[in-house]
Write a structure and sequence with these properties.
The chain is 34% helix and 25% strand. With 415 residues, the chain is an alpha+beta fold. The strands form 4 sheets. Strands 1, 2, 6, 7, 8, 9 and 18 form a 7-stranded mixed sheet that branches. It has a 6-stranded antiparallel beta barrel with strand order 11-14-13-12-15-16. Helix 3 packs antiparallel against helix 4, helix 4 crosses helix 13 and helix 9 packs across helix 12. Bound molecules: flavin-adenine dinucleotide (FAD).
């Protein structure tokens, strides 16, 4: 079988690279190991698909931090606004939620996947399902991809096999092996955007208890990390967007760190210490005969308040009117500077994304082509680029795919 461009993987990156390459006139074959495409995409945003985020290119670059500079060109070529326009033109409006997250108006990831598949088919992209690629090699002129009993010869290859997280969806890190045969380096894949396991056992007693907004701070090797957002206590520690975003930033340090990483959580960031002190005094003086625990539910869920009071040896039945100054100050310290120690991330198989991947220095950021092999391109989560929660990772998939698809098509047209 012969084609201009072979795309490995029918996730959002592979599908969109196929669309842009075919739009530029290339003949495209896309090979997928699953029997259906876009398995992971269907799970995104809890099935609602947080497609991208509202904001300028600079906002995106900042959110991507270490890989923002690399991604800037792809974001200029295909920014979040263009992504939203693409879906709108194809019949799917999007909406921006309060926190800036963008979702399809139907809140269905399946609608996003359907458009990508339909558009690719319309452009005569050929799909080969249930075909696991086992090798990609280069002969004198062509790439030779082996998938099941098929050998596909192509002028260019785009590797879009995703990372190593959620292997059940098909992305099990195969792309790293293919890239290695072409001399590429893989930055060790690590679990990111994942629940954190704490050394302390008490969070497990609060499993399922959430806080709408917290600030988490930590410092590792002189790097200050500050993340805000919702927090959720889990069976082994903490989750929710604030904790997930911290997991991304400490992923590089955590596996090899000799001791657990200390984090400080502000459970009441809407107040500074003085304001919180005044607020507690005011609430207690208005409700002196009520149990303190019930008064403090003005800030936090009762189970959490009970647990914090226990941590400072404050009896559960203490009346609000009987709260002494030193107890109040201890309580404020717990609310504003709750300490936890992160012992480990949860396993990579459960991580939302993989941090790590193909070394960015080996990829031309203007074209997404390998600097080591002409005609070899990368798109999506396989590269060493990642973003926080909020639609930033799908935007990486779409922006890099747009550039890889277009450039691969130009390259094959030259041949
Ligand atoms: C539960 C969950 C929720 C998420 N929610 C969001 C969200 O709301 N917003 C957001 O921005 N990001 C989200 N993400 C992250 C986002 O889904 C990924 O970053 C994105 O899917 C990456 O796209 P990709 O095309 O690069 O890789 P993938 O989606 O992983 O696709 C890779 C494809 O390659 C195929 N493949 C792999 N190896 C082979 C092989 N050897 N032969 C043939 N085919 C192969 C796989 O089967 C797969 O179909 C979420 C992730 C998870 C797990």
């Amino acid at each position: 079988m012969k084609t201009d461009i072979l795309i490995a993987g029918a996730g959002p990156a592979g599908l969109f690279a196929a669309i842009t390459a075919a739009q530029s006139g290339a003949k495209v074959v896309i090979v997928e190991s699953n029997t259906t495409p876009a398995r992971k995409l269907l799970l995104t945003g809890g099935g609602r698909c947080n497609l991208t985020h509202a904001g300028s290119i600079d906002d995106f670059v900042k959110a991507y931090d270490f890989c923002g500079r690399f991604l800037r060109h792809c974001l200029y070529e295909f920014p979040a606004d263009d992504l939203r326009k693409y879906f709108k033109v194809n019949g799917l409006q999007t909406k921006v939620e309060k926190d800036g997250c963008v979702f399809p108006i139907t809140e269905k990831a399946a609608d996003v996947a359907d458009i990508l598949i339909r558009q690719a088919k319309k452009l005569s992209v050929e799909f080969l399902y249930d075909k696991k690629i086992t090798s990609i090699e280069k002969s004198k002129t062509d790439f030779v991809t082996t998938a099941g009993n098929k050998k596909i010869f192509s002028k260019a290859v785009i590797i879009a096999t995703g990372g190593a997280s959620w292997p059940k969806t098909g992305s099990a890190g195969d792309g790293y092996k293919f890239a290695k045969t072409f001399g590429h380096t893989t930055i060790e894949p690590k679990a990111a955007l994942i629940d954190l396991i704490t050394a302390e056992k008490w969070p497990s007693k609060l499993k399922g208890v959430g806080v709408d907004n917290v600030i988490i701070k930590t410092k590792i090797k002189n790097r200050k990390i500050t993340e805000s957002g919702a927090l959720m206590f889990t069976a082994n520690g903490i989750g929710g967007p604030a904790a997930l975003n911290v997991s991304r930033l400490i992923a590089d340090f955590l596996p090899n760190f000799a001791k657990p990483i200390k984090i400080i959580i502000d459970l009441a960031p809407q107040y500074n210490n003085e304001q919180l002190n005044k607020e507690i005094i005011s609430l207690c003086s208005q409700n002196p005969k009520k149990e303190l625990i019930n008064v403090l539910t003005a800030f936090l869920r009762k189970a959490l308040v009970q647990n914090l009071c226990r941590q400072i040896n404050l009896p559960a039945a203490t009346l609000a009117g009987a709260l002494g100054k030193s107890q109040r100050l201890q309580l404020i310290k717990k609310l504003k500077q709750l300490e936890l120690s992160i012992a480990a991330p949860s396993p990579i198989a459960k991580a939302t994304i993989t941090r790590g991947g193909i070394e960015l220095d080996e990829i031309n950021r203007q074209t997404m082509e390998s600097k080591l092999n002409s005609g070899l391109f990368f798109a999506g989560e396989i590269i060493n680029a990642d973003g926080p929660c909020g639609g930033f990772n799908l935007q990486i998939a779409f922006s890099t795919a747009f550039v890889a698809g277009k450039q691969a098509a130009e390259k094959t047209a030259e041949k």
